[in-house]
Design brief:
transcription, alpha/beta, 7-stranded mixed β-sheet, Arc Repressor Mutant, subunit A, DNA-binding transcription factor activity, Rossmann fold, globular, repressor, two-stranded antiparallel ribbon
């Protein structure tokens, strides 16, 4: 997700996408009582190359101390501020099927500065039911309740995703996380991040098959 501060600093999108990885690694280090971390150690914890990490962090104006490393608390604070995590962001999950249920019950949002405040569906059989302590509402009710800034999470079937996105955008939504296995079209100024679980599994299947082929080739070559 892009932030205003990131735009001001002109931070590359690829760097923005890696900042949450660094923050997660830093939080884990802090929980173990680590106060200072080298770029090599942080890169290993985040699963990236140390040279790339140093370049990414330089966009934040953070260079660490030569021969010492990065102060874990300070760097966590810098990244959190850059990502806009000093605010509590309001989230609406749209689509209350199995995936929507699971996302509504996920406790990790709150620990990262995101408050799931609305569950939205257009099915009369679902509207009014309680899920994870929240009552499911429709878009008309969301329009009455929603503040100016909402992050929408699309968990609809693919055939309903575009309409749901259009309705959310009409309410002023400018940031969408799309779990629906399809591409949605949005106007300029609306940011969409796509999470395609099936595609990720297919990529893993490719690597699994490739590894199997290499193993079989090694065995055949040894005979």
């Amino acid at each position: 997700m892009s932030t205003a501060s990131a735009d001001r600093r002109d931070i590359p999108e690829a760097t923005v996408a890696r900042l949450p990885l660094y923050l997660r690694a830093l939080v884990a280090l802090d929980s173990r009582g680590v106060e200072v971390v080298s770029s090599e150690e942080l890169a290993e914890a985040a699963g990236v190359r140390s040279a790339g990490l140093r370049k990414d962090l330089s966009h934040l104006g953070s260079y660490g101390v030569r021969g010492v490393g990065y102060d874990v608390d300070r760097l966590s604070e810098e990244i959190s501020r850059e990502l806009g995590l000093h605010h509590d962001w309001s989230v609406a999950i749209i689509g209350m099927g199995n995936l929507g249920h699971a996302l509504a019950a996920y406790g990790g949002f709150a620990t990262r500065g995101f408050s799931v405040r609305w569950l939205v569906d257009e099915d009369p059989a679902v509207i009014g039911t309680q899920i994870a302590g929240l009552q499911v509402i429709d878009f008309a009710e969301l329009e009455k309740q929603a503040p100016e800034s909402i992050i929408a999470v699309l968990a609809t079937p693919p055939h309903a995703a575009q309409q749901a996105a259009d309705q959310a955008i009409a309410l002023g939504v400018r940031s969408i996380l799309n779990f629906a296995p399809c591409v949605i079209t949005v106007p300029a100024g609306v940011e969409v991040r796509k999470v395609d679980l099936a595609t990720e599994l297919q990529i893993l299947a490719f690597h699994e098959q490739r590894g199997r082929d290499i193993t079989l080739g090694t065995i055949e070559g040894a005979r």
